[in-house]
Amino acid sequence: MKKHWWHKATIYQIYPKSYMDSNGDGIGDLKGITSKLDYLEKLGITAIWLSPVYQSPMDDNGYDISDYEDIADIFGNMVDMEELLDEANARGINIVMDLVVNHTSDEHAWFVEARDVPNSPKRDYYIWRDQPNNLTSAFSGSAWEYDEASGQYYLHLFSKKQPDLNWENEEVRQKVYDMMNFWIDKGIGGFRMDVIDLIGKLPDQEITGNGPKLHDYLKEMNQATFGKHDLLTVGETWGATPDIAKQYSNPDNQELSMVFQFEHIGLQHKPDAPKWEFEEELDVPKLKEIFAKWQTELGLGQGWNSLFWDNHDLPRALSNWGDSGEYRVKSAKALAIVLHLMRGTPYIYQGDEIGMINYPFKDLSDVQDIESLNYAKEALENGKSMEEVMDSIRMIGRDNARTPMQWDATEHGGFTTGTPWLQSNPSYKTINVEAALADPDSIFYTYQKLVALRKEQDWLVDADFELVETVDKVVAYKRIAPDATYLVVMNFSGQVQDFDVVVAAVETVISNTDEAKAIADRKLQPWDAFCVKVTD
Ligand code: GLC
Ligand code: CA
Q: Residue 82 belongs to what H/E stretch?
């Protein structure tokens, strides 16, 4: 298998609005990010996935783009962007841009012309119909919005300010490729492709994900843009199965480096229920099954995994699946260890490296996210109580991940000297970067070590994966390389668990506990996690 830089990379996701505010307007910006590159260099990450910073009316915090080749005023300007690129590259950090091309903003010049001049060629850049069908928006309600002037409806699979592009239109595709090349020429490290599995949609047949032309478009895009460069490309693909993921990421297919699949994330919700119907407790046996399936089915050279617990669309895994109380530090390290030692490219979401937690939303006045607000409106209309709605938002709402990064114990966690656009999590007084850096036992240093291991240890890429049989709440797997075997173990609970595996450990790779004692006692203490090189 041809090796690429991203096989040994760890990616760090930044949500620009919430990372660091450089000018006191309460909104994170590019200069703020640049000012934190030394911190990221210390963490050791290889690339930043930058959530959208393009010109946008910010209906969906930048996932509604009105100009792909300009920077949103709130984030700075192109000079700031070039400075960020230069400064990052100087530290060996690539910048992976978010590519949002399933839809634009309704304020993009293409859509404005399409709507205002119905006989313009731009009309066909979007999807217009005389009658709506049953398609619904991911942000609640119908996916069709009526346009009074022309008497037609346009499709928006997200907010009505995010009209879907018509990928069947060749000119649309060419314009997107030109724009991608514009960014590639600026020296970026790749693209994270927003809801890319939707671009092959057939709206009239109510097919949205994995439409018939999807892979043709991606092959065409690869050839027209990043295929000639060594870039990281990762598609956001909610419905991907291992077979579908292989289609995208098998190197022979010349499509993408990898995709984000969300099967494990599905365990947050009741089976086959809407995302807001959350599960109180994680089904650990099911999680193990899912890990094992993806690790073994995407064999070396056949495809490549992305490894992540959360992102800007998800609550903090530490709060929902770890322990944000007594065992916060230990469970955060455990989650990191068990994830990062699998095969794939790990993604750290900003703040996970210091153990940031969900926000205690009191009521809707604490909430900014369009998805949560639309959900609340619809759920209340349908008879849910405000308490039920708030429970769902506290557990699942996207703003949990979007509260400002916690830098120190000063007001607003040192994120801004002004008033933050979204309130800081009150936990900043104890959970912050300054405190983490000062404590050699902090979560930060576990992440730092995992990132370093990823660069140094070839077995993390090459070794096979084998799930080890254990009691329900223990996750254990082996990574088997020709010359060595590694055992990774995690107690996914706050209780002592039996650990009946005979282990002859020869070397500790990483640990959050006294692993020798755990192995000798055949007992794991709450949230124990470690990796040891073993003799068999
Ligand atoms: C993706 C993004 C999400 C956004 C949506 C529409 O799921 O991650 O934040 O709201 O696409 O662009
Ligand atoms: Ca700012």
A: helix 78-90
Reported pTM: 0.98
Number of Cβ within 10 Å of residue 520's Cβ equals 11
Residue 70 bears catalytic tag: no
Distance CA 308, CA 175 (A): 32
What is the chain's alpha carbon radius of gyration, rounded to the nearest angstrom?
Answer: 23
* Nearest ligand, measured from the Cα of 80: 2
| 23 Cα–ligand 2 center, Å | 5
236 is catalytic: yes
Q: Could you give the CA distance from residue 3 to residue 230 in angstroms, rounded to a whole number?
A: 10
Q: What angle separates helix 328-340 from helix 443-456, to the nearest 10 degrees?
A: 10
Residues in the ligand 1 pocket, defined by CB under 6 Å: 60, 63, 100, 158, 194-195, 236, 312-313
Sign (positive/negative) of CA torsion 263, 265, 270, 272?
Answer: negative
User: What is the mean pLDDT, run by run of 10 residues, along the chain of 536 residues?
Assistant: 96 98 98 98 98 98 98 98 98 98 98 97 98 97 97 98 98 98 98 98 97 97 97 96 98 97 96 92 98 97 97 98 98 98 98 98 97 97 97 98 98 98 98 98 99 98 98 98 96 98 94 97 98 92
* Distance from residue 236's CA to the centre of ligand 1 (Å): 9
Give the other-Cβ count within 10 Å of 295's Cβ: 21
Given a contact cutoff of 8 angstroms between Cβ atoms, the answer to whether 483 and 493 are in contact is: no
Which amino acid would we find at residue 18? S
**Amino acid at site 508:** T
Q: Are 51 and 15 in contact (CB under 8 A)?
A: yes
The secondary structure element, H or E, covering residue 334 is helix 328-340
Beta-bridge partners for 325: none
The full length of the chain comes to: 536
Q: How far apart are CA 300 and CA 353, in angstroms?
A: 28
